[in-house]
Design brief:
Chain lengths: 227, 227
Amino acid sequence: LILLEGIGRTYRMGEVEVHALRGVALSLARGSFTAIVGASGSGKSTMLNVLGCLDRPTSGRYVLDGREASSMDRDGRARLRGEKIGFVFQSFHLLGRASALENVELPLLYRPEIPTRERRERAREALDRVGLADRLDHRPTQLSGGQQQRVAIARALVTRPALLLADEPTGNLDSGSGTEILALLAALHAEGGTVVLVTHDAAVAASAQRRILMRDGRVVEDSGAAA
Amino acid sequence: LILLEGIGRTYRMGEVEVHALRGVALSLARGSFTAIVGASGSGKSTMLNVLGCLDRPTSGRYVLDGREASSMDRDGRARLRGEKIGFVFQSFHLLGRASALENVELPLLYRPEIPTRERRERAREALDRVGLADRLDHRPTQLSGGQQQRVAIARALVTRPALLLADEPTGNLDSGSGTEILALLAALHAEGGTVVLVTHDAAVAASAQRRILMRDGRVVEDSGAAA
Ligand SMILES: Nc1ncnc2c1ncn2[C@@H]1O[C@H](COP(=O)(O)OP(=O)(O)OP(=O)(O)O)[C@@H](O)[C@H]1O
Ligand SMILES: Nc1ncnc2c1ncn2[C@@H]1O[C@H](COP(=O)(O)OP(=O)(O)OP(=O)(O)O)[C@@H](O)[C@H]1O
Ligand SMILES: [Mg+2]
Ligand SMILES: [Mg+2]
């Protein structure tokens, strides 16, 4: 499903260059469940942003489901995201003035074939599955950190995406809530979804089929390189 | 150092009331190291915000270092915070347009007796201690999630506060970085500081002297109630 070849991502700050990704080559099969681990600053979020078509690599090629995402323009990438990708951001990126329900409905607004009533029902269901049935009308500032994280997760799952990318999805959750979230990701995976998550939690990494370790922008270990 | 009596915090949303804290009574000794644990939404951040004088309880009394914080006005609480408290927020709250160095200097700006050169040097040192010596000029959007968290930690520690309150300080950190941060908190504690941290990490909770478990706004377990 995913092919990365010679991927590099460099940030330029005046005279200084930060090499967030260097020479990354990776191939992820459709329906696989992969965990990306590594020290703070090692390039995990940058990697996930490239996979999610949110960021373009400065070098290399990214082919997603047969289409070359790295050479697409903004609109092309936005369409690809809307059709295939669900993304849980490390800092959530919820709309501050919208309720939890409205935040989760948002990705479904881009599917005009879904009637309002069904859209609302699917969003309600998604929030129920992350344990927030009694928080539908709360805005992000009226939610705890872990509740905000769960709204972000519900929003990413509501379209049942072909590719789910999650950046530290349990970072603000107690082990009980974290286990419930992992079960949701496992369910999407069981339905044929492809999951890539970044995590600092060893237990979460252990639940994945494949584990990729990053250091200084490179992939230095890969438990499933043959796959 | 800290006395909470009959503390309640209720949020009103139209007709609905959310009881984020209910009947909390707690006494924390000067120089103690306490961990607050509990499920997502159980009231931990609300508790910490009351302790940090960022939020006023709707009922009950909070006495900090002999002064009744719960009855102070905004200015009184702001002064108390500036003098005695360092706070690491669950969502960091960094200034987006300032560099890491400027963000960490900020609490020292309220101490005009400290000359500019020394202020800059202390901020640089604080960032070095959290492993960010090479990120001084980066703004928050130019930092990884865990790097932003470490800037927030450095900012809370730069004044060597009498009371350090940290809300999930290792939530975005790999175990290596997390261990380094815990060592910094332990160092402050060894110098006589009082530390209260909220955490979902069992290892972090285990390193504290006392463990408080919250559920639905109440303290339901307390390993050091006699202290
Ligand atoms: N402004 C608000 N209005 C209404 N309810 C609120 C508001 N802020 C917080 N709450 C509710 O108060 C409860 C406690 O919130 P708090 O942030 O203290 O939880 P927490 O224990 O820190 O959770 P987490 O582990 O997820 O960070 C939550 O159920 C939350 O929905
Ligand atoms: N806009 C930017 N400009 C300059 N450097 C950047 C920018 N964004 C990120 N970086 C740097 O790129 C490196 C990789 O960042 P990234 O967010 O991918 O790390 P990460 O592995 O997700 O870390 P964490 O575990 O802390 O979230 C970091 O060292 C960071 O400082
Ligand atoms: Mg990251
Ligand atoms: Mg919290």
